Amino acid sequence: MSTSLLIKNMVCPRCIEAVSEIFSGENLEAKVELGKVRLEKSISEAQKEKLAQLLQNRGFELLESGKSALISQIKTGIIDLVHHQDNQLQKNLSSYLSQKLNQEYSGLSKLFSQVEGITIERYYTLQKIEKVKEFLFYDELSLSEIAFKMGYSSVAYLSAQFKKETGMTPSEFKKNGQVKRKSLDGI
After folding, report:
1. How many Å apart are CA 45 and CA 30, to the nearest integer?
2. Are 58 and 23 a contacting pair, CB within 8 Å?
3. Cys-Cys crosslink for 3: which of 34, 39, 86, 126, Cβ 3.0 to 4.6 Å?
4. Alpha carbon 69 to its chain's center
5. Would you state the pLDDT for residue 183?
6. More confident position, 46 or 11
7. What is the pLDDT of residues 96-139, one digit of tens each?
8. How many Cβ atoms from other residues are within 10 Å of residue 145's Cβ?
9. How confident is the model at residue 87 (pLDDT cuts 50, 70, 90)?
């Protein structure tokens, strides 16, 4: 019988590697994805507690099912969409999350707002702005290409939203060379 575990703070391919190492170190066959691990067999409570400690030592958290797990899945889904899926930002966010989590978006939105103190849409926007900062820092794409890639209808709209969130235009950000990336997990 297989078991699924939810893991908080998994946001990148390196996180998948780190979590995979933990499970292979415990001789557990696992399929590791962002925010989730599927085990071939059930594990004991003692194994679960040991895994929770090993994960915590590496900056992750084993989640029990419930509200915090659902919030983590929402965040992981948005992070995956924005940072790891090229040209997928044309998707409707509510449809994407509803389909991914197999839940009504209105319920997800209400829960997220109550627990996190911001809307899902705001969290999504903040993640997009962080990705725009990354693109600006590496200076490989024009602002038009960034706007298109990030799903903005125009450069003007991207610039306005960027200025609203950072206090400077993308050009000013690029010129100043300010790369002040912040963790959005605490939001």
Report:
1. 17
2. no
3. 39
4. 13
5. 47
6. 46
7. 999 999 999 999 999 999 888 999 999 999 999 999 999 999 98
8. 12
9. low
Across residues 68-72, what is the average pLDDT? 86
Question: Could you tell me the two tokens for 149?
Answer: 């890639």
Q: How many CB atoms lie within 10 A of CB 117?
A: 9
Per this entry, what is the length of the chain? 187
d(CA 125, CA 140): 22
Phi and psi dihedrals of 31, rounded to 5? -105, 115
Among the listed residues 135, 177, 184, the one whose alpha carbon sits nearest the alpha carbon of residue 155: 135
Angle at CA 140, nearest 5°, toward 137 and 141? Answer: 100
Tokens standing for residue 59: 């900056």
Q: What is the mean pLDDT of residues 155-174?
A: 94
Give φ, ψ of 26 to 5 degrees: -100, 10
How much is the CA Rg of the chain, to the nearest whole Å? Answer: 18
3-state secondary structure of 61: strand
